[in-house]
Amino acid sequence: MSNKPNLKLKDIKVEIEGREILKGVNIEIKGGEIHAIMGPNGTGKSTLASALMGHPKYEIISGEAHLNGEDLLEMEVDERARAGLFLAMQYPSEISGVTNSDFLRSAVNAKRGEGNEISLMKFIREMDSKMDVLEMDQKFATRYLNEGFSGGEKKRNEILQMMMLKPGIAILDEIDSGLDIDALKVVAEGVNSMRNDEFGCLIITHYQRLLNYIKPDFVHVFMQGRIVKSGGPELAERLEAEGYDWVKEELGIEDETVGKG
Amino acid sequence: MSLETKLQFDDQFIAKLSQDLQEPAWMLEHRLAAFHKINELPLPKLEKTNLSKWNFDRFTPYTEAAPLQSLSELPEDVQALLFDSNNVLVQKNSSVVYKQLQEELQAKGVIFTDLNTASSKHEDLVKQTFMTLVTKDAHRLAAQHGALATGGIFLYVPRNVEVEIPFQGLFYAEGEQVAIFPHVVIVAEENSRVEFVANFASKGEVALSNAVIEVVAKQNAKVRLATISNMGSSTVDVLYRRANIGRDAEVEYIIADLSEGRVISNSTSHLNESGGIANVKSVALGSGDMRANITSSAYHWGTHTASDVNARAVMKDNASCITNSITKIEKGASKADGQQSSKVLMLSDQARGDSNPILLIDENDVTAGHAASVGRVDANQLYYLMSRGIPRVEAERLVVRGFLDAVVTEIPSDSLRKTIHQLIERKLR
After folding, report:
1. pLDDT surpasses 80 at B7
2. B385, B424, B428: which to substitute to probe chain A, counting the most A Cβ within 10 Å?
3. Which of A50, A123, A172, B219 has its CA 20 to 30 A from that of B116?
4. Does residue B381 sit at the A interface (CB-CB below 8 Å)?
5. Where are the domains of chain B?
6. What is the pLDDT of residues B70-89, one digit of tens each?
């Protein structure tokens, strides 16, 4: 087996409070690839992200998910993370009294394992340099985790965590919402800095704008709780130019959302 | 079990105790008067806590301990509670076994000694305050304390003397059925400044700690009183703190309730004159079957007085905690300001917490506010931390530490903050 990370989903179905939201998702993401899932609001894109990370509210009722050949669905949330999955969240929690750097160091060390903890100096150096890339003020290191952060600051902080944790597969859930163009460029730079064969990425968005800065290899259109169309970067461009109506027409979809009725 | 309180001591016992300690006559009189009140008086009435099953009666009333040559004779973990070896008094069981006061402070007229010595040597000073704030008539536990108080500390800071480093009292009980009754009197004269840190610790099946701390802060004096209670699960841990706060004087309480048995932790401030300030910073961490009633009260009598109570409690396992904040602003205390904030975080389904803010205001021209909350650990916060690879237990610890830190980081002394942090960390493991 190669060292390339691999996330493979087969017919994933998810329920929230007894209501089926995802109706069979199939996708494979490998190291070196950037996938984008695009789709209008309410089609279940974010549900996919949360369910894969293991959010307690989302129940995967059937299907398979394997990360590097291991059964993802058998793992606890923290095990999934240590196995190399990362989710940049749309709405990160605020945690009072826990500083950003303490939290990040705990996370980095949890992944490295006991006896292999990162030295404080090395950790600080690394965090400083990554914060520079993201144009984050050093004071964010000592502020409480996401507390009082603006929307844009939270998003940068998510990317900072990703850069520090160096996951094999990252899912970015609407990382671009609420970002101005400058912040968007900075965040994209952070993601691009990680592009290599040991990193695969799934970007969930409903704007094409982000994809101007992070060039995807594959683009998937999400409707009614599943991927309805896949293609290359040209698909994103057409969606930006023409919207989603042509896809709906082509596939005979009247209502693209899920869970109504 | 009989309904009647079985007392394991009588008039003769008390007379002998007083004689053995070579106390002045007034002390014996006070003891006997208090003793006779024990069966007359009810237990203290605590909001929402039923004390009927707590053991206040089965204990050994006096257990002598031999003096220490050096602090290193203490068990290592007990010794670690002290952050300095200067101006320290150690009480083990019923005896004061070690005391040290820096000479330069002595030269300035500072008194820091055991209460027994002070009751003869500084009779008038002690008499003026001893059991005048918490009186023997208050309730059964106060009477019991009055009858049996041994060890303890008298700390007197003269006018205009500011002491930079904190005085430390270590009250350490060891052995089955042991009970301790430390009494601390702190008198801060005009314009003085003093800090006192008390640690309460136990080893073995200790039955009871019934302690009282009385503070008199005179005009413009500043007193910081920190108590760190860390008694074992067999112990009923009772601590009444009470302060009379004079004109423009300030008393700051720092309270860490980390005991694992039954806890009554009470602090009461009387803001008697204009401009007085009372601040309470209180953290509690309950584990096992701990039951706690933590009450902070402020009574505003003077104008322009201010009180601020900031309390946080975390309950694990089957622990249960009632946190009461009582602010009473009396008629005439205009421009007074009373603030309270009390939050309880529960870590298990069996843990219980209750937070009761009580504001009683008899004056129109005042400001007051309160915030209270009781809740469980936020599942989204745990999910977020875990999604970064942090195991559940560690994630919970981070959330708890953060929750308590809102109060702990406000503690102005570095060494104290560090001590409390370490104790909390140890408890969370």
Report:
1. no
2. B385
3. B219
4. yes
5. 11-376
6. 999 999 999 999 988 899 99
* CA-wise closest residue to B366 among B332, B341, B342: B332
pLDDT in tens, B141-180: 999 999 999 999 999 999 999 999 899 999 999 999 999 9
Chain A residue with Cα closest to B394: A106
Q: Which of A76, A77, A93 minimises the CB distance to B381?
A: A93
Interchain contact, A77 vs B378, CB within 8 Å: no
B53 touches A: beta carbon within 8 Å: no
pLDDT of residue B4: 43
**Backbone φ and ψ of B242, nearest 5°:** -145, 135
**Which residues does chain B have within 8 Å of residue A77's beta carbon, measured at their own beta carbons?**
383, 386-387
Percent helix, strand, coil in chain A, to 5, is: 35, 30, 35
In a domain, residue A64? The reply is: yes
Closest CB to B387: pick one of A77, A96, A144: A77
If DSSP states are collapsed to H, E and C, what string results for A4-63?
CCEEEEEEEEEEECCEEEEEEEEEEEECCCEEEEECCCCCCHHHHHHHHHCCCCEEEEEE
Give residues with Cβ within 8 angstroms of A198, minimum separation 6: A3, A4, A5, A31, A32, A168
- Rounded Cα gap, residues B40 and B16, in angstroms: 23
Count: domains in chain A: 1
Q: Which of B166, B301, B175, B269 is nearest to B224 (CA)?
A: B166
Determine the structural domain holding residue A56 and report its residue range.
6-185+199-251
Assess if residue A120 is contained within a domain. Answer: yes
Chain B interface includes A4 (CB < 8 A): no
Q: Answer yes or no: are the C-beta atoms of B223 and B194 closer than 8 Å.
A: yes
**Residue contact B387–A89, C-beta within 8 A:** yes
Instruction: Give the ranges where B355-391 is alpha helix by DSSP (H).
Output: 379-386
Closest CA–CA distance from residue A253 to any residue of chain B (Å): 35
Residue B284 tokens read as 């509690």
Tell me if A129 is assigned to some domain. yes
Beta strands in chain A (DSSP E): 6-16, 19-30, 34-38, 58-67, 70-71, 85-88, 95-99, 144-145, 169-173, 200-205, 218-223, 226-231
Cα separation, B78 vs A248, whole angstroms: 73
| Residue A261 scores a pLDDT above 90 | no
The two tokens of residue B47 are 């909001």
pLDDT digits 0-9 by tens, B93-149 = 999 999 999 999 999 999 999 999 999 999 999 999 999 999 999 999 999 999 999
pLDDT for A259 equals 63
Record: contact A78-B392, CB cut-off 8 A? yes
- Interface contact flag, A93 B405, Cβ < 8 Å: no
CB B185 within 8 A of CB B126: yes
Would the CB atoms of B390 and A78 count as touching at under 8 Å? Answer: yes
Would residue A38 count as lying in a domain? yes
Burial A104-124 (b: 16+ CB within 10 A, else e): bbbbbbbbeeeeeeeeeeebe
Distance between B382 CA and the closest CA of chain A, angstroms: 9
Please work out, in degrees rounded to the nearest 5, the angle formed at the alpha carbon of residue B9 by the alpha carbons of B152 and B234: 65
Distance from A81 to chain B by nearest Cα, in Å? 5
Among A76, A98, A157, the strongest candidate for a mutation testing the B interface, having the largest count of B CBs within 10 A, is A98
Q: Is A42 left (phi over 0), alpha (psi -120 to 50) or beta?
A: left
Cα separation of A186 and B151, whole Å?
Answer: 66
CATH of the domain at A84: 3.40.50.300
Dist CA A156 CA A150 (whole Å): 10
Of A77, A89, A95, the CB nearest to B402: A95
